[in-house]
Design goal:
By secondary structure, this protein is α/β, with parallel strands linked by helices. It has helices at 18-25, 37-49, 91-95, 98-102, 110-118, 122-133, 137-140, 171-186, 193-197, 207-221, 228-233, 236-253, 255-269, and strands at residues 3-6, 31-34, 59-63, 68-72, 78-81, 155-156, 159-160. Among the domains are: 3-90, no CATH class; 171-276, no CATH class.
Length: 284
């Protein structure tokens, strides 16, 4: 049976915890629920470890209010995409239909319905009423919009935002990363972060995955994956040559042995910055 889950920030989740998620998935009914932050984080982290998750078979997820989607087939194999699928509904449409049913509000008296809404904190109450009654509060200025901001890594208010090392804790992920890197380098192609992660649209890649890949690459190459400016400068042959030698040394040592040593080094380095991190593997 298909289970559909939506990350709608303006609606109270019907599946707020991982425990609730598993209960819903194990049910034999067609279900549609809003999921909470704990569930969103759990699913995204699970996908870092493996893209095939049997527990999620026949599940569909819409993240970030419908910005991107993930479907799991009958065997639990996942597929990411951004085109809006036919099973997706807007937050407002969901609020006026299935959300009411999930929270047992579809058939209650008006006074009881009002009591439930009044029990919500003011900000949440406004958000729910805005969707339920089509108030367009953003247009009236009652619910102010927060403009999106962009920032560069560096220093903010005395606190650095430089990325720190991350250990993804998965030899299988490391093996996949290593094979992608090797294929690119031996073809004299720049091993960009898109190549190393296997994800073209990095905006949709989990931050932990990107940081973990950068950490591994820095350990091997002594530098970060090439950015657009470096790629535009050209001469991939020069960039790849020293990495090829590192790859040969790692394979001579043994990929799993190298990975185990690297994982220990990352753990010992604790919260070091990626730019400061280095690793020298043990002698054979």
């Amino acid at each position: 049976m298909t289970h559909i889950f939506y990350e709608f920030s303006s609606l109270k989740p019907g599946v707020p915890t991982v425990e609730t998620l598993m209960e819903v998935i194990n049910s034999s009914e067609l279900t549609r629920f809003v999921i909470g932050a704990e569930v969103v984080d759990f699913v995204k982290k699970a996908l870092i470890v493996n893209t095939t998750i049997s527990s999620f078979k026949n599940c569909r997820f819409a993240f970030d209010n419908g910005a991107h989607f993930i479907e799991f087939d009958s065997k639990g194999k996942s597929r990411r995409f951004s085109d809006v699928p036919d099973w997706f509904v807007s937050p407002a449409e969901f609020a006026r239909s299935q959300w009411l049913i999930n929270h047992k509000l579809a058939d209650v008296h008006a006074t009881e319905f009002v009591d439930v809404l009044m029990s919500f904190p003011l900000k949440e109450r406004r958000a729910h009423c805005n969707l339920l009654f089509g108030l367009d509060l953003h247009k009236t200025g009652v619910v102010p919009t927060v403009p999106a901001t962009t920032s560069n890594l560096g220093n903010k208010k005395g606190k650095t935002t430089k990325p720190k090392i991350v250990d993804l804790g998965s030899f299988e992920l490391f093996r996949q990363f290593f094979e992608r890197m090797k294929e690119a380098v031996f073809a004299d192609q720049f091993p960009t972060l898109q190549v190393l992660t296997g994800i073209n649209n990095l905006a949709k890649a989990p931050q932990a995955l990107k940081q973990g890949i950068r950490t591994w690459f820095k350990a091997i190459a002594g530098d970060l994956p090439p950015n657009n400016k470096r790629v535009e400068a050209g001469n991939a042959l020069l960039f790849c040559a020293p990495i090829r030698e590192q790859i040969r040394q790692i394979e001579a040592l043994g990929l799993e042995k190298y990975y185990q040593g690297l994982s220990r080094a990352i753990a010992e380095a604790d919260e070091s910055f990626i730019t400061d991190f280095s690793y020298t593997p043990p002698e054979r």
